[in-house]
Structure formats: C-alpha cells, structure tokens
Specification:
The complex is a heterodimer of chains A (391) and B (151).
Chain A lengths: L2 H7 L5 H17 L4 E3 L2 E4 L4 H17 L8 E3 L8 H4 L4 H16 L22 E3 L2 H9 L10 H10 L1 E3 L13 E5 L6 H15 L4 E4 L6 H14 L6 E2 L13 E5 L1 H11 L7 E9 L1 H10 L10 E6 L1 H6 L1 H9 L3 E4 L15 E4 L2 H11 L2 E4 L2 H10 L1
Parallel strand pairs in A: 2-3, 2-4, 6-7, 6-9, 7-8, 10-11, 10-13, 11-12, 13-14
Antiparallel strand pairs in A: 1-5
Helix pairs in contact in A: 2-7, 3-5, 6-9, 8-9, 8-10, 11-13
Chain B lengths: L7 E3 L1 E4 L2 E8 L6 H4 L23 E4 L8 H10 L6 E4 L4 H10 L3 E3 L11 E5 L4 E6 L15
Parallel strand pairs in B: 3-4, 4-5, 5-6
Antiparallel strand pairs in B: 1-8, 2-6, 3-7, 7-8
Helix pairs in contact in B: 2-3
Classes of the chains: A alpha/beta (391), B alpha/beta (151).
C-alpha cells in the first residue's frame, strides 16, 4: 500500500472513503493482490429495487451519512421501471418511492443515471484500460470485445471502486491471467442468435473458471457478440472469451482441455431453458439493444402491426433511445414499446398479467422464471417479430 | 465448566472486534440474499440445514457464502435491525460475506475447521488475532445458583 492509501485507511480522508478503502484492501488480500491500481470507470449493479431491495437503500444511506462520493466516472445498471412502465404495471406508491430513493441515492453519491447494462455504447473504454465493472454481461463484453480489463465485480466492490477510484490488482487485470485455458470446437453453424447464445450459455456452464477459446465461429456482428458473452456469463462465471478467428495464429499454449460442441448439445440447452407455451409478451433487449439492433427491428417491422392482446417490448438505454428518435417512431408506430432505464428481467413484469414471455435471450430465460414466475420461450428476434405481428 | 482441554482454533482475522456468543453451525454455504430474511434474521432457504433458525446474536459458523453480491447489503440490513450475527467464522473467505462483515462491522475469522464446532458451543471470537476459543461445549452442564447441577 502507498502512504496515501494508508492514510485513507486510517480515516484521514473521512469515514466514507475509509470504508470503501477497507473493502478494496480486504478483497485484495483475499485474492492475493499486491497492490491497488487506478481504474478509469466503475459500473455499478444493485440498482433495481426489485433485486437489491431495502438492503441496498440502507447501505447507500450509510455511505451518504459517512460522506462518501464517487471519484471517477461511474455508471449505473437498469432499475425497475421507466416513466411508462410504472403506469402500465400500475405499481404501488411504496415501490415507486423506494425505487426513486434508491436511484437518487446513487446520484447523490456522484454516480451517473445511465440505468443501462450496456454503458459501453455511451462511454467506450479504450483497449487495455482498467475498469471495475459489475453486471456480468458488461464485464464479458468489456474484456472480450473491447479488450479492456475488468474482473467480475460485485455490487459493493464496484461501488467501493467508484469511490476510491482503484481496484485490487489481480485476476483479469494481469495479462498472465487472460490466456485461454479451454478450447471449444463448435461443430455446427448456429442458424440464428438463439442457437448461438444458447451455445454461449452451455460454454459458460462447462468452462467454470477457465477462459474459453472458441473455434468455428466466424463473422459475428457486435450485437451477436454482446449476447454471446451475456449468455456465457449467466450460464457460468465466464468473464472473458477468445475467438480463434480473431487470433492470427493458433493459441495452443496453456490449453489444458478441449471440448467439441454440436447442434444436439445446443438444442438440449434450448430445451432446458424454453417452454412450448404460446407467448403473450415478446421481449427483445437483454442485454439492452444497441442502435444496430433497433435498426434491424425497425426494418423488420416495416409494413407490419403488432397483434391485438400481444405486447412487444424493446428494451434499450435512455441514451440510445434519445439518440435515435427515428427508430423509436418506426417501432412504436408498428405497435411496439421502446422501454428504457429498465428491462423485463428486473421490472415487476408479473403485474402485466401475462403468462409466457418470448425472448431471444438465454440470460433472460434463465432469470425470468425465478424472478417473476413467468414461463419463457426462446425465439429468435425475427421469429419474435413475426409471431408478435401475425396474431 | 470449561476445562483446559477445550479447543482454541487459530485462523485468520478478517474483521477486527471481539465477541462471545453461542455457535450456530452449518455445513452448507449460505446465500444472504434470498436465503436469510432481512426483517427477522431467520434462515429461509428451503432445505438448508439451518432453515427456520435465527442468525441474530449468534456466532454463525459456515463454510463460505454463495449467491448474489447484494447479499452483503442484506447483512447490513440485519445489523441495522439488531438481527445480525454477533460474529462470523468461515472456512474460506469469499467476497460476499467479507464485504458484508466489513460494512456491518461484524468480527470475522476465516481459515477455521468448522467441523470441530457444534451448534450450542459457547465461543469467543477475536477478529484481530484470528482466534476462535471454545469457552464451553454444547450440552455441558454448568453449576446453577444453588451450587447443584443445572440444565
């Protein structure tokens, strides 16, 4: 520890900074870090009152009482509703005010009200930069697509990093820990993103704490990579993946294990996550849609109309929604709703009175039954839009 | 009463502080989010070996934490209601419980063989030195006020 860090730990910079420093130093100790390193940004989870609850409100009250404040750019994950959903779901006043208190507490601590799981479309980290991000899908995107460095932080450690501006130097911050340990041969060509992302879910499950190198996946678009990583992170603990096609030459060194995955393996993964019920809510945007996805959705909805009694929700960030009013108009003109600040998974969607949600996201399919008691049917974006409109 | 043969276990101190209390011992990892009711302190995870027991005021001994990192906040919520464990003894330090113990200021020791402890043991935990001392074994009788053997 530097002398300055020791002073903070002794409380010379105030009790809020002391508590945050204590969290980082103790975690660094557990993980065998030799020092703290500066991070350029923090991304904090634990924003939705539905998942974080009163416990988070109380921690934030405590931090405010202790005078803590973010010292670096820090962004926030989705909360439980936007201005429309609170009305559509007819949320009780207690829920609304608790969620508002939670969000404004984060703002008072100096965090930005981004309320999205894709903060990287708003502030794009440089390759090689060090970050302290929570939200497992953003972590895997930052490491694998942007080539930035972040461990999979928890809600409190990302918040502590936002306050101190540092993180313990271990795990994926060290180049020697970013090499692949398991080679995954993909023996088939996924026919759509549901197959691709369910493959990701399965890879996450198989790899445990090993870093996968995937061979056989070519020419994936940004949104496909985003979903692939999100699925890996929800199927297991993957925080970084490599694509063989992106490396110039084969990476054999350090590979301890090889696994081949075929179409059969992926179909049984889909079966495990998906019901065959008739959906009444169609949901795209886990993780939040990029502009590229909104463009695709708007173009597929051209000349179509969402059927009666069917809901089509497209979730994205407020930043992207405000940047592309043309796409929002096209989607909403066809009868869909473009929702921001939240998503179906962390909202109180069960109050909508629907039974089955169709989505292209295995991550959403994994979490929705437990969080909302709803059935999920996995369908690709194209299938979702087709089914939502033909009824 | 306690004899000279009682256990003194040496682990690693994680959160400083000293406490004496009754052990509540589990062989199963605990998720504070969803596994412990923050309003009552009761373990609510179905099928958990502590299901239905309250962690309030106990020295909670278990292998390590699991589940969501929001679990750390649940420990603080318990603390603010006076329902937190008095001390924590774990085999392995995991980030969720460690952060929860720091923000809730609960003395914590790790690196201790939990299988040597029994629910009902009277324990003394020193989070600064990393010592867990068994002051009295569960079920051992103590002298009552009249000098006879009590329950």
């Amino acid at each position: 520890m530097t002398r300055e860090e020791e002073k903070v730990l002794d409380g010379e910079a105030g009790p809020g900074l002391k508590l945050a420093m204590e969290i980082l130093v103790k975690l660094g100790d557990i993980f065998g870090a030799e020092k703290l390193i500066p991070v350029e940004s923090a991304h904090v989870s634990g924003i939705s009152y539905k998942t974080a609850g009163d416990a988070a409100i109380e921690f934030l009250r405590e931090l405010k009482e202790l005078g803590a404040k973010a010292s670096i750019p820090a962004t926030t994950n989705p909360c439980g509703f936007d201005e429309r959903l609170s009305r559509i779901l007819d949320l009780p006043e207690e829920l609304i005010s608790a969620q508002r208190e939670l969000v404004s507490s984060y703002e008072e601590l100096g965090l930005q009200r981004t309320l999205t799981c894709v903060p990287y479309y708003q502030h794009r980290p440089e390759p090689g930069s060090h970050l302290a991000w929570a939200e497992s899908s953003a972590v895997v995107y930052a490491n694998s697509v942007l080539n930035a460095c972040t461990n999979r932080e928890g809600a409190p450690s990302a918040l502590a990093a936002a306050i101190v501006g540092k993180t313990p130097d271990h795990g994926l911050h060290r180049p020697e820990n970013r090499k692949p340990g398991i080679l995954i041969h993909v023996d088939f060509k996924p026919k759509d993103e549901v197959e691709l992302w369910s493959l990701g879910f399965l890879v996450g499950k198989i790899c445990k704490d090993k870093i996968p190198l995937l061979e056989g996946l070519k020419g994936l678009a940004d949104w496909e990579l985003k979903g692939l990583g999100a699925a890996m992170a929800s199927g297991g603990m993957t925080a970084l993946f490599h694509l063989a096609e992106a490396h110039g030459e084969p990476v054999a060194e350090g590979i301890e294990e090889e696994v081949s995955l075929g179409k059969e393996d992926v179909l049984s993964t889909i079966e495990g996550l998906s019901s065959s019920n008739e959906p009444d809510l169609f949901f795209i945007g886990c993780p939040h849609c990029s502009e590229e996805e909104l463009e695709l959705i708007a173009s597929l909805l051209k000349g179509r109309k969402v059927g009666k009694g069917v809901h089509l929700w497209i979730c994205t960030s407020r930043y992207i929604k405000e940047r592309r009013p043309d796409l929002v108009e096209a989607i909403e003109g066809a009868g869909g709703l473009v929702i921001c600040d939240t998503c179906v998974v962390v909202s109180w969607v069960e109050r909508l009175g629907v039974d089955t949600v169709a989505t292209n996201s295995p991550k959403a399919a994994y979490y929705l039954p437990g969080l909302s008691g709803l059935d999920v049917r996995l369908m690709s974006l194209r299938e979702c839009l087709r089914s939502a409109c033909t009824k | 009463m306690s004899g000279g043969d009682l256990l003194v276990l040496k682990g690693k101190g994680i959160v400083e502080g000293h406490c004496i209390g009754e052990a509540l011992v589990s062989s199963t990892p605990i998720s504070f989010l969803g596994g412990v009711n923050p309003m009552t302190g009761e373990v609510i995870e179905e099928g958990h070996d502590l299901e239905g027991r309250s962690v309030a005021g106990k020295i909670l001994c278990f292998p390590h934490g699991k589940g969501s990192t929001v679990g750390s906040y649940v420990m603080l919520a318990l603390r603010r209601r006076g329902l937190a464990p008095a001390g924590l003894v774990n085999e392995v330090a995991d980030p969720i419980v460690v952060v929860g113990a720091i923000i809730s200021r609960i003395p914590m020791v790790v690196g201790v063989d939990i299988s040597l402890l029994r629910t009902g043991d009277l324990l003394e935990v020193d989070g600064s030195t990393g010592t867990v001392r068994v002051l009295r074994r569960a079920g051992e009788r103590v002298l009552d006020e009249r000098g006879g053997k009590g329950a």
